[in-house]
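Let's do one together. I've listed all components of the complex below, 224 residues spread over two lines.
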Amino acid sequence: GIQVEQSPPDLILQEGANSTLRCNFSDSVNNLQWFHQNPWGQLINLFYIPSGTKQNGRLSATTVATERYSLLYISSSQTTDSGVYFCAVSDYKLSFGAGTTVTVRA
Amino acid sequence: DTGVSQDPRHKITKRGQNVTFRCDPISEHNRLYWYRQTLGQGPEFLTYFQNEAQLEKSRLLSDRFSAERPKGSFSTLEIQRTEQGDSAMYLCASSTAFGLASSYNEQFFGPGTRLTVL
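Okay, and this is what the predicted structure of the assembly comes out as:
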């Protein structure tokens, strides 16, 4: 199956800081999604981004499909950004990375 | 669009009991997926349906697990003779996609059912 590696595994930020999360995947894929998992376990869709660049408020993402990686950027971080961020890739079923746990301190 | 819903949200059971979970997908979505997530890990694929047809089952889905999607609407996941290793979050997702390798297949997740087997 497709292997998905996320880095770093843990990230501690001061409120207001910027950060970059990385996702590497082992094979070409049709779909790539970024999720934020809240403390109650709900996976919130951040981006559907099989290629290119998208922005949504303070978050943006870039996927370079030919080089098999994606980046998630968080700018001006807030405490509400804390949680686990997952990258997942698929042709039909999603294969998830292990996640990056982000802690934003006030 | 009310999103994907799951019921119950939490289930505590004793080892050996049977449990059943329900998932209601987004109404116009033809695909429905089940995933399982254990503590500290990303979700892992269990099975998926296109309309009422179950198209793939993971090797994680032992013969104690069965899933159905009658009439291509809601789905149920049943676990028979539960074991402590079944304790996990069970997540349901849905999408609109056509063909085995659709060029668009954004999946939307429900809130999950957290199972604890004592």
